[in-house]
Amino acid sequence: MGEEEEKKPKAEFKFPPDETGLGIISAVIAVIIVILPGLPAVLKAVGVIFALLWGADSVRKTSKYGLGTGVPSIGVLGMGYGIVGALLGIAFVKFMGPKLGTFSSVAALGGVLLMGVLGYISGVFSNHEKIIAMKIPKLERGMMELGMAGTLAMLLEFSIVAGSLNFADVVDKAINTGLIALMFVLSMMAMFHPYNACLGPDERRPRTLMSSVEISGLLCLILGIVLVATATSLWSGVSLIIFSAIVWIVFYVKFVKACMRESDSVVGTGLIKTIE
Amino acid sequence: MPIEAVAMLFAWMLVIVFLALIACMFEDLESDTGSQSNPNSQVQLAAQVGQVHRFFNKAISGEAPAYAMYCTTAGVIAYVLLLKEIHPILAIPIGAAVGEVFHVIFATTAHIGRTAGSKRFEQPLYLDVLYGHLLPIATHGFMAVLCIVSIAYIQSNLGTLSGYLPVDGVTPLDHPFALPMLAFIWGITVGAIGSSTGDIHYGTEREFQDRPFGEGKRVVYHGKITRYADCGIRTQKDIVGFCAKYGGPCTGMTFGTIILFENWRTLVGMMLGRFLPAATGFSDIAAMLGIVIGLVIGIALIFGNVAFVKWARKRYGPFVGE
Lengths: 276, 322
Description:
The structure holds two protein chains of two kinds. By secondary structure, chain A is an all-alpha fold. Chain A has a domain at 17-203. Chain A has helices at 2-14, 19-34, 41-63, 71-100, 109-127, 139-162, 167-175, 179-198, 205-230, 234-262, and one strand at 266-267. Chain A is globular, with a radius of gyration of 19 Å. By secondary structure, chain B is mainly alpha-helical. Chain B has one domain (2-253). Chain B has helices at 2-34, 38-48, 63-83, 88-117, 127-156, 158-162, 179-197, 200-205, 236-243, 247-272, 284-316; one strand spanning 125-126. Classes of the chains: A mainly alpha, B mainly alpha. The interface between A and B is large, with 58 and 56 residues. Strand 1 (266-267) of chain A pairs parallel with strand 1 (125-126) of chain B, so a sheet runs across the interface.
């Protein structure tokens, strides 16, 4: 199953869909995996990868007009939305769960929608002439997508570690153990590091997005190690480790090769160009 | 027994202070090796204004989130190993090593990504620069992360280590947060202090050393400090050697002093509020006394700094920029 899932993003990277297409594909995949918490951890990892890919694309979209040192801040903001939205989501599951029965996880999408609305409102506030007047093109849409992608990624990570979106389980296994810090910090890295690392006039979108998948692989690798150490079923952790290690190796090698191919020149050593 | 426990508490506090000093010193030197926060703008700008250089461009993020990442990763691995009942003396270094593996992975992608992103400025990707800087980055970072994870471990077991006995299954003075969360908070702190206090080299020691009190420089000259050293082409290995003398220890001292005063005032406040020897019945008085001592220390430091700056200006000349 691991290999099969992993081919799909690879094919997309050669002909990546445009920003809207990638957003819709990632959102649909992540939402389907969120509302089915009984799926194996490997499939949830695929959802995490797609959600963070969408987040990284939104960071790129938002910061492309020339945001330099602000790129990391946008990613941190996205995961800030993510943490708040995911906690709201599991709270919705707790309160709406009894009414919805087996489909109680659908209630978690309430957090996603709320964060989308909140992101849109904050985008409008930031761009509105009378309030902050930053006038950043496409900021409203970028913030909305960031909030939704961050929340989806965080919900899926909770679901990997806790096995479900049950409030008590998530608090016990993800928050009390401090794993929420790891999820926050590596997810925000997966969102902002790609664009921050590839920043420059010759930045290319497929190359940037490769880096995001690679970091999501690292995140899932650590979550797999945690699962092996804590979960009752060893197989889910081991399969997650194998899958994410393959994803990481493939995309890391692809990213390094792409950068080396596309930089001005790769030299073993050399002196710097003299300037008169 | 309680008095010995208090003495042990103060001793562990001093261990934490010492570890913080080492951590922040190596953090600052590591950020000089990779040119991470403030100097990074110079490294990034240099190629764009035509100053091709042989610097490592470690644009991971600001130092604070980056160190939060390495320390949290290290903390999670150490935590998992401790759950499996592996001795901390093995678990903490293994965790720190994994954190540094992550650090090196991110450093590589940042350097080659930025170099490929500035193709049109004819900045080549020097492989010896790439490989040659990864090991110094990893080793300096390892020291910092090791110390931070050790601090987090000590804090989360402080009561047990000081010899307090559990009351209702909870040992008093053990930190309620789990180890990864403490590592996260301490990682952000060490990165923030290293970023704000560090970079002595770029701020005052080298870039502006011909100007009294660091006057601004024209944009044309930006990026020049990345090119030539006193002898030959400059790389960051020269800078680390340069900064290891004053810049790094100074940064470490800042962080160590902050931790020292902060913990000392809390513990003294707890002792004066009669909380400490027994470690039961925490009162508002203990907290208030701690806050008052903290305010006194803060005011004393403000006056000390004003006097020091006045003395330095009198001794070394006026501030020309004003």
